[in-house]
């Protein structure tokens, strides 16, 4: 049975539940981060149970190392996903040990495999042009919203969660700037290119008023709305990007690829790496240097 569908041992499940409550209530982590922690820890718990560890206290470092190998060889996860799993395990067991739930921390000696770093994927300028221009009036009344979303993600290097969270007050129409709230609720100002600003203005004038016609303020003053007038969720952003990619005939496209392409094309154009770091909202210049 797939470990992601099996049931974890009860003691392990309780430990995971306690950690998730801590992460949600005391740490106030974003929902996307909580979802990732939950998936990683559930898979870990099931695999550890299969190896004979019915509780976190019975887990050894060798078991965790075997789990990492399992993720790569049997699950076929890419290096970045494996690094994320490793980070989740280290945080989980460190918290259990600090709170006296386990006698020792079996993950304390596991090191981040820096050699797994790889260049992010990117699209050519021609592919990017085909992608953002994929939505058309033939697609129905929401084509302007989809086009505006794609243009903003590429023009300003936005994450899927960031573009959906944009509010009307975040767009400075005079200066063509966006106030973006990123990871850790950190805010940054990013410019909006003229093509993106033009299609955004058209969406705001022709499409959004129809979507926001309800009187209950379900739109929460967000820029991008669903067909029912509610803020555009992260999963909807994925769906729109995938649909545009199919129309444009480009494979392997996901929302973050637009962000990678934004940064890569800036580097190719001679932009300063520190400027790109600020535009992307990276806390560490080392993260930006991958481009």
How would you describe what is shown here?
The mean pLDDT is 90. Strand 2 (177-181) and strand 3 form a beta hairpin. The chain is built from 13 helices and three strands; from the N terminus they run αααααααβββαααααα. The chain starts with 9 loop residues before the first helix and ends with a helix. Strands 1-2-3 form a three-stranded antiparallel sheet. Helix 6 packs antiparallel against helix 8 (194-206) and helix 6 packs across helix 11. The protein is mostly helical. Helix content is 54%, strand content 4%.
Per-chain topology:
Elements: H1 10-26, H2 31-50, H3 61-73, H4 79-98, H5 125-132, H6 143-156, H7 160-165, E1 171-172, E2 177-181, E3 187-191, H8 194-206, H9 208-211, H10 234-248, H11 255-268, H12 273-280, H13 285-288
Antiparallel strand pairs: 1-2, 2-3
Helix pairs in contact: 1-2, 2-4, 3-4, 5-10, 6-8, 6-11
Shape: elongated
Mean pLDDT: 90
Number of helices: 13
Q: Which value, in Å, is the CA radius of gyration?
A: 22 Å
Strand content: under 5%
Percent range of helical residues: 40-55%
In sequence order, what are the helices and strands, one letter per element? HHHHHHHEEEHHHHHH
Number of strands: 3
Low-confidence residue ranges:
none
Largest sheet: 3 strands, antiparallel
Keywords for this entry:
elongated, mainly alpha, 3-stranded antiparallel beta sheet, 291 residues, single chain
Concise synopsis of the structure shown:
With 291 residues, the chain is mainly α.
């Amino acid at each position: 049975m797939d470990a992601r569908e099996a049931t974890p041992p009860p003691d392990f499940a309780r430990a995971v539940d306690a950690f998730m409550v801590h992460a949600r209530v005391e740490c106030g982590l974003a929902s996307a981060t909580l979802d990732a922690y939950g998936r990683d820890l559930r898979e870990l718990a099931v695999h550890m149970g299969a190896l004979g560890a019915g509780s976190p206290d019975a887990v050894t470092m060798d078991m965790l190392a075997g789990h990492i190998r399992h993720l790569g060889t049997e699950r076929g996860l890419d290096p970045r996903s494996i690094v994320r799993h490793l980070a989740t395990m280290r945080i989980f067991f460190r918290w259990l040990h600090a709170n006296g739930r386990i006698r020792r921390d079996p993950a304390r000696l596991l090191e981040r495999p820096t050699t797994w770093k790889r260049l992010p994927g990117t699209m050519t300028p021609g592919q990017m042009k085909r992608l953002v221009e994929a939505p058309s009036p033939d697609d129905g009344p929401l084509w302007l919203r989809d086009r505006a979303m794609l243009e903003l993600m590429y023009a300003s290097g936005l994450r899927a969660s960031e573009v959906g969270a944009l509010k009307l007050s975040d767009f400075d129409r005079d200066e063509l700037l966006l106030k973006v709230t990123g990871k850790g609720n950190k805010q940054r100002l990013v410019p909006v290119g003229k093509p993106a600003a033009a299609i955004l203005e058209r969406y705001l004038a022709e499409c959004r008023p129809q979507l926001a016609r309800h009187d209950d303020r379900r739109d929460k003053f967000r820029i991008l709305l669903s067909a029912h007038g509610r803020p555009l969720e992260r999963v909807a952003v994925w769906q729109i990007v995938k649909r545009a990619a199919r129309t444009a005939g480009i494979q392997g496209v996901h929302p973050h690829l637009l962000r990678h392409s934004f940064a890569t094309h800036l580097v190719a154009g001679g932009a300063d790496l520190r400027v790109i770091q600020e535009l992307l909202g990276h806390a560490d210049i080392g993260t930006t240097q991958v481009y």
